[in-house]
Structures are given as structure tokens and as C-alpha cells.
Amino acid sequence: MTSSATQPLASTDDVYPSRQYDEPRLLERQDPVIHGKPGYLPELQRRIYETKGFLAYPSFFTAEEIEAIRREADSQRVHCERDRPEVITEPGSNDVRSIFDVHRRSPTIDRLSRHPKIQNVVTEILGGGAYIHQSRINFKPGFRGKEFYWHSDFETWHVEDGMPRMRAVSCSISLTPNTELNGPLMLIPGSHKRFVSCVGSTPKNHFESSLKKQEYGVPDDVSLTRLAEEGGIEAPTGPAGSVVFFECNTMHGSASNITPMPRMNVFFVYNSVENKLREPFSGQTPRPGHIANRTDYNPLQPVEKV
Amino acid sequence: MTSSATQPLASTDDVYPSRQYDEPRLLERQDPVIHGKPGYLPELQRRIYETKGFLAYPSFFTAEEIEAIRREADSQRVHCERDRPEVITEPGSNDVRSIFDVHRRSPTIDRLSRHPKIQNVVTEILGGGAYIHQSRINFKPGFRGKEFYWHSDFETWHVEDGMPRMRAVSCSISLTPNTELNGPLMLIPGSHKRFVSCVGSTPKNHFESSLKKQEYGVPDDVSLTRLAEEGGIEAPTGPAGSVVFFECNTMHGSASNITPMPRMNVFFVYNSVENKLREPFSGQTPRPGHIANRTDYNPLQPVEKV
Lengths: 306, 306
Hints:
Two copies of one chain form a homodimer. Chain A is α+β, with helices and mostly antiparallel strands. Helices cover 24% and strands 20% of the residues of chain A.
């Protein structure tokens, strides 16, 4: 770790500085949580998202809808070329952990990303047009599924991709059942209202290792303890077809999965067209386009017939 | 892995051969599950232990009783010398993961191991006198608690310690709350009725690394899948003071713990005095006495006043 004196001064319009100081800081959120007016979401759901930073639907898609997606995801996994940059393998094995940019690789996944049921939620939360910042399929194998430590996605997107403000939402669509025991997504309710400014700096080409194992932009124990004491920890469970929308700054992670039950999900990140990327706040080279789209900011058009 | 031709022949009286063949095998249990006559345990609890291979009590000890033990465990952790062989640290840190032989280090823990409520259960399950094969305190820290992969304790005790038959029971006493999310003990009900004969051989001084990370005596995916399909997976939860008795061959493990909630438990292994250790079935040097007691086979005397 370098001393404060040798570190670059925070950009004056960087409202969420991170990896710039020697000590972690817990900053207040500077943006609304829901950017759109009431319309589609019931008032209770708006209140839940506003308060907790996520909305979990146990049965968002039917078994038939999800079966078609699962087949497509399996096909992508089987047929993907392991040496493509979009394909991330597990540390210590050749098993596919994630496939990025999957809405461009698969017309089926593209249509899923523009499903009206999803688009209606996204439009209300982001208040208008949205584009896809990142898409992927995650495969968490049985027996040897690795943990993913606590993190705010926004922290990474801000520092490494130059996403200026908190006006993005992630949508995770489960293609397998989530139980408490097979390494489910865990979230800290209310954590989206704070920004954990992490210590240290970002090394060059951090993304190449961070997608396998996070080492920078890691929240500190004191901040995590405080957030979890205030909000607890929740792990939404449900059958295949369950969906979680979570705010870009909601602290989340998952433990290892040693059960025989694999986990698979499709993951879309929607960012507001008013929140286009700038230069990374780390001052370094932007991550590649399959991880952080910075070429296509056209608002998504919902599919008409699903 | 060596070929069958170069491996030692299984001892003719080794009814549970493991790490001797190139292919995993799922063998039938050759021993009773409960060795004693009915007396102390209610009939339902005997049936549960017989069927599932474990008995979980959500509130075995009172908050006051357990608070005294927790203080003693904390004191042991703080004051133990990290370079003692009984003290095992986490991979990659100096945090204490386990302290072995703790009933000899602490009169308080010694008395706990001979608590009448525990002794009554142990005596009925093992059918007569029992001694302590192994004792320890386990500390699973918050944030960075590592996973412990699936294993049958008996497989290790048989191969590496020379425990001849399945006539031992483990008692795990929680000193902190167990939730589904903080890396709880997971068990496969019914798995104690089979013996998963693992592939490969045992390297010399395996215990030095295996207490940190298991690499030999690891059950195969097919056997684990079959056991979990038949019996499911359970993770008993409860407050501090909850206790699980589990049969020496019950398949168990735990995922990593990234929550801020640490886990701490005291762990006693009771073996029947009729089941004394022999030479290890691996043919190698026995593990040291603080891991596998082979000098004191005197039956335990329950404390009179608790």
C-alpha cells in the first residue's frame, strides 16, 4: 500500500472515490435508489427495493420459459471456446465459470434481456431508457463451486469502467434451484445506501484475475460488520425461474458450493442511458468491451412477442 | 495414481479398505449403528440416529453453561502458542483454526467431555465404556472461514490411525449460533450405512497438510451424488449450546464462511474401549497422539457434579 502523499488526488467530480486512500471510508449514497416515477411496480415492491436494495421474485418465469433458457445456457457452455476472452474458467480447472457478452452471442439470450416483464421493472427503477452494460451466464458447479467474496458491483464499475453514478440495476435469473446450502447469492439489505470506499489502488489489467478471484476493491471487515449488523444478510431461495433485481451498489457475495447441486444463472446489468461510461476513475485503461460495454448506448427495445 | 498391480494387497481383516484401488467403491457397512441396549435415549431418537447417522439438539446446554465454555475456548485461542503441533492455523493466515487435545490442556474442557448428559448418549450409542480418540476446539472465523470438503471421519481414522471398526461417535458442541449462511456443518443423512472407499494412496505425514486442506481420502463425485440423492443434505442450525452427535462414518463437510459471524465449537470423538486402535491400515507411521490418542484407553468417568 502506498502512502496518501504519493496517491493521485481524487477527481473533483468523483463523488464515489475508492482505492485512493489508506483507510477505508463509509460514504453516503449521493443518488436516488429508484429513478423513475411509480407506474408498473406495486407500491410495496418500490418500498422494498428502496429500503433493501433488491427485489426477489421466487417464480418470475414459468418452468417452460426457464427450461428453454437453461437448454440454451447449457449449449453455450458446451460449445464455447475456452480460450475466448469472454469465457472465464474456474481457478485450478477447465470448468467454465462464466461466459460474458452472452446477449450478443445468443439471440435467445438477447430476447430474454428485452423481455417485457424485465424491461418494465428496469425502466421504472432507472427512470427511462437503459442499455446493457454487461451480460453473462454464471455456472457455479457442484462440489467445487468457489466462493465470491463480498463486493459492490458499482465500486468496480465506477473505478475500473468509469460508471459515474449509481443508476444501474442487475437482474439475476436462476436456471437452477437456489437453496441455502448450494452457495446462493447473499445480499446485505440496506447496504446500497452507503458506499464503502476501499483501500489500495488498482493494478493494471486487474480484470484478468479479478474475475476469478477478487483482490482489489475488497470491502474492509469493519464496514462489512457495520452494514451486516444494520441490515442482516439475506439469501433469496427459490426454484429455477426465480429472479433477483439488485441495485448496483448492494453489497453481495456467495460462499463456496460443495453440494452436488450446481447453480446456473443469467445475469444482465442494465445501466441508464443518462449514466454513460467515462474514463475509468482509476485513471487506467478501460476494461474490454465484453466486460464493460462502452460502444452501444442505444436504449433497449422490449420484445413484443415472448 | 499408481496402477492396481503396484499397490499393496488389502489386509485380509481390513473390512473397510480405502486408498487401495484405482476406482472408488461404495461398500456396505459391516457394523451396528447403535451398539448399546435401549435405556437413556427415547425410542424416537434411537430411530433417528440409526436412520440418519446423527442426532441434533437445538438447545442441549443452557446459555450460562455454554458461556463458561466459550470464555474458556476464547482463552485457549488467545493464549495458545501458534508453533505448538496441537495448534492449526488457517491456510494463508496466522488465525487459529483448531486446537487439538484440548481436554488435556483445559480442566474445564475435560469436565465438559465427561458431562453426564453427553456420557449417557455416548454410552448407549457405543454400548459400554468409551475413551477420547480426539478432542479439539474449531474456530471458523468470519469473512475468511475456509470450506471443509465432504469426508467420513472414519475413513481417515481407519486408514491413518488404525481404528478397526465403526464404533465411535463425534459430539460437536456449538459455542456460537449456527445459521444456514455462516458455513454450518452439513451432513448427508443415511450416508453412515455405506463406506466410500476412496482412490489413491496416503502420502507420508499427510496429517500435516490434511488438517488444513484435504487432498487424500476424498470421496468421489459419483458416490457423493448417490448418497445425497438418497438422503439429501441437512445443516442443523441453532443457538450457542446446540449439540450434534454424529456417527463416525456419516459424510459431512462445510462451505466457506464469508459472513461476519464466526463459528466456534468444541469437538469430542468418543471411541469404544472395544475398538482400540491398531497399526494404520495404510501401513504407514501412526499420526501423533494429539490427533489420534493411542496411549490412554481408560474408559471415561462421568463427572458427578456439573
